[in-house]
Amino acid sequence: MSQHPVLKETSQRMEKALAHTQDMLRTIRTSRASSALVDNIRVDYYGTPSPLSQVAQISVPEPRQLMIKPFDMSILKEIEKALQKSDLGITPESDGKVIRLNLPPLSGDQRRKYAAKAKDLCEEGRVALRNLRRDANKEVDALLKSKDMTEDDNKALHDEIQELLKQYEAKVGDLQERKNKEIMEV
Question: H helices within the chain, ranges in order?
Fold first, then answer.
């Protein structure tokens, strides 16, 4: 049996919601350096707020260090300002050519705070998935009302949509578990 168009579309939308949750989790600091930590930082590049990754090369030379090398050396100070304004809580060190961010080890309180932030982001992801389920169920009910679907098909499709939601909620749970493990890692 081929997959119903409503189910197919809902699956694609849930996949996007999952990917968004994953992207948001990448920005949470763990005990290891990751270029994703600075993904959301925007730098004023000739009057245009540009993502840091588009104006500089970001590398991880050591487990607790990020190195940022601007493509255009004239914006080194702008990058430094953007990093200082960010919520990273790390002071950038510049030698005139590259900027280094040394990540101090996380304290127990910081770990708990970041784990709570990860939990909140995952819950937002689950809410988004449930909203997609609600929208899909409304669409299926509209098909029943317009007599484009039988009651049995309607019930079966509601069950499939619920099953799809369970699968994606489990994936979000896995993401949260992995992120917590990274955060708590010493």
Answer: 5-26, 52-55, 76-85, 108-145, 151-184
Boundary of a domain, candidates 57, 72, 102: 102
**What is the pTM (predicted TM-score) of this model?**
0.76
Residue positions counted in the chain: 186
**Nearest partner of 160 among 4, 1, 55, judged by Cα:** 4
SS (H, E, C) 63-86: CCEEEEEECCHHHHHHHHHHHHHC
In tens, the pLDDT along 56-96 reads 898 888 888 889 999 988 888 888 888 888 777 788 888 88
Query: 57 and 119: one domain?
Result: no
Separation of alpha carbons 154 and 173, rounded Å: 29
Q: Which of 60, 53, 67 is nearest to 98 (CA)?
A: 67
| Domain boundary residue, one of 102, 131, 157 | 102
- The C-alpha torsion from 6 through 11 and 14 to 15, rounded to 10°, is -150
22 lies in the same domain as 57: no
Give residue 53's pLDDT: 86
Distance from C-alpha of 39 to C-alpha of 116, rounded to nearest angstrom: 21
Residue ranges making up the domain that contains 137:
5-26+107-184
> Could you report the per-residue pLDDT of 153-171, keeping only the tens digit for each?
999 999 999 999 999 999 9
